[in-house]
Design a protein that fits this description.
Largest sheet: 6 strands, mixed
Number of helices: 0
Distance between the termini: 9 Å
Number of strands: 6
Strand order of the largest sheet: 4-3-2-1-6-5
């Protein structure tokens, strides 16, 4: 479940992007996010890009999207 304050990191091993959820209403297709460390660069992101697990359903590491760092 996506809730404000959660932190996500990029699944792409070449990126160090970390996002913090600023706002989200259950059922919406987008969540408002900002940079986790600075709070700058607010933007909307598709909820389908936010994942609970760093692994896909068949056990392979994810390469796209963002994975939950801390609940």
């Amino acid at each position: 479940m996506i809730t404000p304050g959660q932190t996500y990191r990029s699944c792409n091993p070449r990126e160090t992007t970390r996002l913090r959820i600023e706002s989200y209403r259950p059922g919406d297709a987008h969540a408002r996010v900002a940079d986790a460390t600075t709070g700058k660069r607010p933007r909307w992101i598709l909820v389908g890009q936010l994942h609970d697990s760093p692994l896909t359903w068949d056990g392979k590491p994810r390469r796209t999207g963002y994975v939950l760092e801390q609940p």
